UniProtKB/TrEMBL annotation:
Domain of life of the native organism: Bacteria
The protein's name in its UniProt record: DUF2508 domain-containing protein
Organism: Clostridium collagenovorans DSM 3089
Pfam families listed in its UniProt record: DUF2508
Length: 87
């Protein structure tokens, strides 16, 4: 199931500000980027592509951690199972 659809359902049940919603969507997008970069790293064989995959994975990880920190500042709690609760 698309995780964005899950967020949409949660947003219907719990009132979040637009800023909180944007942060949660950004976290989902960054997580998908990180997963994609990790998959790429697992598949590539060429040394130059390996370097690129490492760079891409590190960038995605940094983006993900940035948005997690922003969520923490706003009091948004998301557990590893992607259950979202208002903190």
């Amino acid at each position: 199931m698309d995780r964005r659809l899950i967020l949409d359902v949660v947003f219907e049940k719990i009132q979040y500000t637009n800023e909180q919603k944007e942060i949660m969507y950004a976290i989902e997008d960054a997580k998908e980027e990180w997963d994609s970069a990790n998959s790429m790293f697992q598949l590539v064989k060429d040394p130059q592509l390996i370097d690129y995959a490492i760079h891409k994975e590190n960038a995605a990880k940094s983006k993900y951690l940035f948005y997690l920190a922003k969520a923490k500042e706003l009091g948004i709690c998301m557990n590893l199972g992607y259950t979202i609760e208002k903190g």
